[in-house]
Write a structure and sequence with these properties.
2 copies of one chain form a homodimer.
Chain A lengths: L2 H7 L13 E7 L5 E7 L1 H10 L3 E4 L4 E4 L8 E8 L5 E8 L16 E3 L11 E3 L2
Parallel strand pairs in A: 1-6
Antiparallel strand pairs in A: 1-2, 3-4, 5-6, 7-8
Chain lengths: 131, 131
Amino acid sequence: MGASKAIEQCLTLTPSFDASGLLACITIDAATGEVLMLAYMNEEALRRSIETGEAWYWSRSRRELWHKGATSGQTQRITEMRVDCDQDALLIKVEVAGDGSACHTGHRTCFYRKVALDRRSVGTPALIMND
Amino acid sequence: MGASKAIEQCLTLTPSFDASGLLACITIDAATGEVLMLAYMNEEALRRSIETGEAWYWSRSRRELWHKGATSGQTQRITEMRVDCDQDALLIKVEVAGDGSACHTGHRTCFYRKVALDRRSVGTPALIMND
């Protein structure tokens, strides 16, 4: 069994961090399944997320550990964590505290704009606000 | 209005590729909303995805454009595309052809293992098969 099959089949969490030491993490709403955001965790953020049961990320723009909601009040309680086949991506289900928004813009989800695919023949695609 | 607010509020798709020229892309099942996989698109993969209406990715391991399902038959027809606040991540809703599995392991989703968070006090977390 090659290294990759071992990672796909093993029953131990053996995360495969990228060259920057990060895993992508998809965060979804525990109640509705809606995708709220995509962020990154380094080893320390993953350890804290597992130990505290709240989402910690690594902010690539600020280059620092980030306890989601620590300042805004919208902390994320993790109810479930999954890992993908090659263990380089995580999926967490969360309950968002405070006003329930996951995006710093105030939207519930970061994915509040839809790409207007039906207008794709006329150059740069437009975006439609769609929360 | 700063550059970041402009990106958050504009109604034009202006993707922010990372240092490797990639955007993270979350792929979900159009019918159920289930998260199927996380992959990456470079500019060419994004262009082809928009133009053909089928998912194209950039394979980081093989370092090549990747028309998902071209060999397996499990192509992904895109019914909706969203972009996040800072335009460095995409969300696509897809209808999977063939046997409906999105993962090369044969699982429907790449996230077929759950992290055993309740056993987190005893060292390395275990994984539970859970498709």
